[in-house]
Design goal:
Blueprint (H helix, E strand, L loop, with lengths): L2 H7 L1 H8 L11 E6 L2 H12 L3 E6 H6 L8 E5 L6 H12 L3 E6 L5 H5 L2 E4 L12 H11 L5 H16 L8 E5 L3 H17 L2 E5 L16 E6 L4 H10 L4 E6 L4 E2 L8 H18 L17
Parallel strand pairs: 1-2, 1-3, 3-4, 4-5, 6-7, 6-8, 8-9, 9-10
Helix pairs in contact: 2-7, 2-8, 3-7, 3-9, 7-11, 8-11, 9-11
């Protein structure tokens, strides 16, 4: 069995452990979340859910454009704590007198050494190059409003059972749709398929899909809608089903996860990760070690 599979399957345990930690946000402060790759998607998703003054930037933008936004607190997310753009961005913020908070899964990392404060969740360490369970747990840590580990167990079973009935080998084009925080996890779902299974992927807002991108739709396309349970998304599902398979994540959906102001996103991410893993296996690929990727991007 692959590391990736085990790291997804242990997600309920990680969600339970992360309940022991908390972070407080103030309505009087301006926050900037910084990350790269999955960490950026995680930060973007959380910033859309939290009711605080915040924005999300890639470490690459801060570094390449020599840009430091006005804010009170910078939150820097890096699974390994070694991503060059994120570490250098934290240094830049700190030099400008901005409080820096790091979130990482490795002890004694470069990020931990730079930041004023750091949450080091070493129990989230992953062997796989691709970030999975750690993503879900850190997202829940940032946004949590209730314990979800038991629900996560049920979602894992439902996801495995549902995907066993689909011939994933048939599909070579994956489209992920969602608004706001659902857009964030749609982007992450697309990245997981791209990393693990080397597939052609897209991510869009649901209603934007009709405005051009739908031209690439074929019966080899698998569409995943991370829904806010609007009537327009239901209609879109029915329209697209005339042409190809659509998986609907929402109330009474194929994976029944009711929209809850974004607090349900960690549960939806579990399905997206399992989908990517199973597609990789169907293609005979090793999801633990995708080509041309490393756990830390250093430049």
């Amino acid at each position: 069995m692959n590391y990736t599979y085990n790291e997804i399957m242990r997600t309920p345990e990680l969600l339970k452990k992360i309940e022991n930690y908390s972070i407080e946000f103030s309505s009087n402060k301006k926050y900037v979340f910084v990350g790269c790759g999955s960490s950026y998607n995680l930060a973007f998703t959380a910033s859309k859910i939290l009711k605080v003054n915040s924005e999300t930037l890639t470490g690459g933008k801060i570094l390449a454009l020599d840009y430091t936004p006005k804010c009170d607190i910078g939150i820097f997310i890096s699974r390994t704590g070694e991503s060059t753009e994120t570490v250098l961005s934290a240094e830049k913020f700190k030099k400008n007198g901005i409080l820096t908070i790091g979130i990482t899964c490795e002890k004694n990392s470069s990020l931990e050494k730079v930041c004023d404060q750091t949450f080091t969740f070493d129990f989230l360490h992953e062997e796989s190059i691709v970030m999975t369970g750690a993503f879900t747990a850190i997202l829940h840590f940032l946004i949590k409003n209730e314990e979800i580990s038991n629900v996560a167990k049920k979602i894992i079973k439902k996801s495995n059972d549902y995907l066993e009935k689909i011939d994933l080998k048939k599909y070579n084009h994956f489209v992920f749709l969602g608004f706001d925080e659902e857009y964030g996890i749609s982007k992450e779902g697309a990245l997981k398929i791209q990393e693990m299974a080397k597939q052609f992927v897209e991510f869009h807002e649901p209603l934007e899909y009709r405005h051009g991108p739908i031209s690439k739709l074929t019966d080899k396309t698998l569409v995943i809608i991370n829904s806010k349970d609007t009537k327009y998304e239901h209609t879109l599902k029915k329209d697209l089903e005339k042409y190809t398979k659509v998986i609907y994540l929402g109330k009474d959906g194929d994976i029944d996860i009711k929209y809850n102001s974004g607090f349900e996103t960690p549960l939806r991410v579990i399905f997206l990760q399992i989908l990517a893993y199973k597609k990789a296996i169907s293609e005979g690929l090793n999801p633990d070690r995708p080509e041309n990727l490393s756990k830390s991007v250093k430049i």
